[in-house]
Please model this.
Amino acid sequence: MSEETKSLNFIEHIIEEDLAKGMSKEDLRFRFPPEPNGYLHIGHTKAIGISFGLGEKYNAPVNLRFDDTNPTKEEQEYVDAIKEDVAWLGYKWENEVYSSDYFQQLYDWAVQLIKEGKAYVDSQSSEAMAEQKGTPTQPGVDGPYRNRSIEENLDLFERMKNGEFDEGSHVLRAKIDMGHTNMLMRDPLMYRILKRHHHRTGNDWCIYPMYDWTHGESDYIESISHSLCSLEFKPHRELYDWFLDQVVEDDKLRPKQREFARLNLSYTIMSKRKLLRLVEENIVSGWDDPRMPTISGLRRRGYTPNAIKKFIETVGVAKRDNIIDVALLEFCIREDLNKTAPRVMAVLDPVKLVITNYPEGKEEWLEAENNQEDDSAGFRKVPFSRELYIERDDFKEQAGSKFFRLTLDQQVRLKNAYIVKAESVVKDDAGNIMEIHGTYSEDPSIKVKSTIHWVSVRHAVKAEVREYDRLFMHESPDTHPEKDFMEFLNPESLKLVTAYVEPSLKDAKVNDRFQFQRLGYFSVDEDSTSEKLVFNKTVGLRDSWAKESKGSGATGKKIQSQPKPKNNQPQRKAIDIIQQLGKKYTNLPEEKQLATKAEIQELAKNVTYEELQPWFNTAAKKVGTRIATMITLGVLLEQGLERNEDVDVFITAGMEDKNEALVTITKSL
Model:
């Protein structure tokens, strides 16, 4: 088996086998068939990626087909949103088609089945039909209308179409086998009466086909070669094939249904019905609320098509359902924005720093790099003056050895500017620090451990920042039959902050993305105006939600940076645990690598530079340990550690390493 063959997923293997058996490559045709009853969510991106990805791989057409058979839930708004989402992801469909395009053909085929004695009109209540259908272990029984004459069935079905009956009074059922082991084969419904306005056909029809009847027949009409569905449709495959058996002609292509595992994401719900409830109960602002897992919500939050595609590619195509850690999705957007987002300075929790030896009224425009990952990004000018805003967390009057930032005893470098020394503070009556007073120095010989960001008070632009967190506090909020998923809502999923940003952002446009240095990635929201800038937090610089479950009802908790001692044994140092995690790192699958990375980042909060520095000399062959060291270094740099010669040498070596994982992590620094 060649390396190329080995890399194929199981669906590609099926297609390759069909081609090897004589199917023409020209006959390959795929489709993405959403129902327009809601907005697409991240789970749909897998189905989109599979079908359109196969189209790109085999240069085959892909239809965008709207399965619009239920006018009670479907709207043109959803059609428009779906088209926008698929196009935004970068995919082009061959034809835009609708199941409603085939209503007449489906009706004609249904009449044909009645004439052949393979369908009949049932006039029972839905409760009676359900009772007669049996159970998975007990066969069903024939209903009283199963043996109606063909003439009566034809008459009733036509009168159903003509609107002579009330909703619920009659249905059309396929006549298969009420004793079949597959309950879906026990005379399934084909049509029901719905006197509702359809978003495309208006009031032309008052009977509408069921999905199982429509699905395969639509595939057949469109000459779809491979009908790809999520796993819940696997039991439907037998019915799919039975319906096709009734209409397929020998000289025409017969579709083949195959199933793949759907995408489930932790701390998220994927039910459109439940997502609609969040919208209708005003838990979120709409389908495109940045906390929603919808594609429109992710787009508004600042996600990119590249990041979502990378996520889908990493997840892969599987045969069994599982839950993917949302940290993987967040990792993918960090990786993408790290390469493309301009670096700027913004202060989200400001305290004023007054530099007393800097002349009043003086200002300087200093040069700042836009993105060290992009040589073409160039530089910009940022204003410096006597009064600055810095982050409140970047100052403590006194602090321990693990606090690298500004104190009354410890100097820091201001990003792109000078070294500053704090000398006194001004407090209000409650003891809160209102101002920090200090002095600056241009002496290049002064060594400091930390660099912090800042914004000039005189030039600062006020902005609203919407800090989004996960909408749910439980990893699987809709898997508890005894609890409503709404019970797991995170009350702190949105925090509104008044921030100050550098003046280069004054003309930022909607959807522009930036890295607020040392804080995370942010995108300009559509609510932003020339008078009021509004930013959405896309994702932090690292995962702050490293979780471990504790019992079936646990909401999860942050990974403890220091495990509890067992059997009175001395507590292990964080650096030693990090070393142990690093040894196994390269042998882990990508998802577990991400979880391990998050654990290392949490542990790194309890590591000093003096503890870490000796690991810079780790042998080249111990890649895992070097990766763990680089991850830890990233946290220390984020906390404000000043880069020195040893740090630069270690980072340079990481950039030049042959191990792709180490290079990727190094680039993120």
User: Anything to note?
Assistant: The radius of gyration is 31 Å.
